[in-house]
Each structure stands twice: as structure tokens, then as C-alpha cells.
Amino acid sequence: MSRRVVYFILNGIHTNPAQTDGWVDEAATLLNRQTPDYVKPEKFEYYTTALTRRLFQARRAEKLLHKALGYAEDGWTVRMIGHSNGCDLIARVALAATRKEIPTLRLDSVHLISPAAEDADFAQAVQCGAIRRVHIYGSENDKALQAAGLSAKLLNFVGLGFGSLGLRGKALADRFPGRVFDHSRHHYGHSTWIGGLALPGTVREILQHDDLLPA
């Protein structure tokens, strides 16, 4: 692993990038304060709604891929932290990295918080070696993802459905022992992990899983 590590931090829907006290900003601050000097947080913020996210999702993924490739080509170890729809962007980047025309990009670890993403996408990315380790922070009682699962059944034919991997973290972990890890807490809601009082603990847990903090 390179001595230089970058963490991309991605928000979900209905998040205003203009806010300076959002969870992405706070997470970046915590990473700056709690990690060695060779670790850098990189915010990847955007705004979208549930109905418009599909319109520019591919374009956002291309921009994220371009940024990640830049770091990888300069010798950085690339890791990503995403919430909800941000996890779908991570999946798109990982799958793009498996294509022959894309220079080699391997995500060292991804941390999926309440992931509104497809199980099959991350399964493929792990099988192809595009991601070394996947950590899932979900909940079986995530009401937003329960609705997302219903939307996938009803609206995927017009491209408006959401994934709901966060409901089934253990199932994916059981398929890929030692590579996918489920840290779900089933009394949590969709945004509990990134809430004000919970966020420092979530960041600390992420860093512990990446061996950057003592257990």
C-alpha cells in the first residue's frame, strides 16, 4: 500500500453542498484531525433529488472516476466513504475500473453507510478485484431503504429505482468472507450513522477498520 492515502467522501440525495456544517464537511475535519499526515480527505459533494438523481448520475460517476484515477496514477491508495446514493456512485466507479479501456484502479476499501446501491454491483466489483475490502454500515429497519427496495420493483423499468443493499449487509458479507464486512446496527435509521452525535463514532469505526486507529 502507498504511504499516501486519500478518502473520497460522498453524500446522498437532498444534501446542500453550500452548507459548511454538513456531515461531509464534519467527516473531512475529523479525518484531518485524527489521521496521520499522509492521509487526505477529498470531498465529492453534489445536489440531487430522488426524482432527478438518475439524470446526472452517470456524469457524476465519470467525474469521480477521473478524480480517483488521478490520485491512483500519482501513487495514492484510494478509499471511499459514501452515504445512501453516494454508494451507488462508488459502485459505478468500481465497475468502470473493471473495463479494459480504463487504466488500473483498485479501491483499497469502501465504507458504505446506509447504501442505496445494488448488491450485484458490489459483488461483481469484489469478484473482479476492483475493490479489496467492503465495509457495510446498514440496518434491516432502515425505512428509506425499505422504500427504495419497493421503488426498485416498481420503477426500475424507467430508471428511477434505488438499490437497497443496506438492508442485507450480512448476506453479502457471507458470500465474501474476509473481503466484505457487515457492521450493521438494526436499531439505526437511514441517517443515524452520520448524525451529529453519532458521526465521530462512525468515523472512528471506519478508521479502526482501516487500521488507522487502535481498536
Characterization of this structure:
This protein is α/β, with parallel strands linked by helices and 215 residues long. The protein has one domain: Alpha/Beta hydrolase fold, catalytic domain (Rossmann fold, 3-Layer(aba) Sandwich). It has helices at residues 23-34, 53-73, 85-96, 119-127, 143-155, 169-175, 199-209, and strands at residues 5-10, 39-44, 77-83, 107-113, 131-137, 180-182. Strands 2-1-3-4-5-6 form a 6-stranded parallel β-sheet, sandwiched between helices. Strand 1, helix 1 (23-34) and strand 2 (39-44) form a beta-alpha-beta unit. Helix 1 (23-34) packs across helix 7 (199-209), helix 2 crosses helix 3 (85-96) and helix 3 packs parallel to helix 4 (119-127). The longest helix has 21 residues, at 53-73. The mean pLDDT is 91.
Which fold name is given in CATH as the topology?
Rossmann fold
- Total strand count, please? 6
Number of domains: 1
Number of helices: 7
Any idea what the shape is? globular
Biggest β-sheet description: 6 strands, parallel
How much of the polypeptide forms β-strand, as a percent range? 15-25%
- C-alpha termini separation: 21 Å
Biggest sheet strand line-up: 2-1-3-4-5-6
Which CATH architecture?
Answer: 3-Layer(aba) Sandwich
Structural class: alpha/beta
- What percentage of residues falls in helices of 4 or more residues? 25-40%
What's the CATH superfamily, by name? Alpha/Beta hydrolase fold, catalytic domain
Low-confidence residue ranges: none
Q: Give the helices and strands as they follow along the chain.
A: EHEHEHEHEHHEH
- Name of the top-level CATH class: Alpha Beta
The chain-level mean pLDDT equals 91
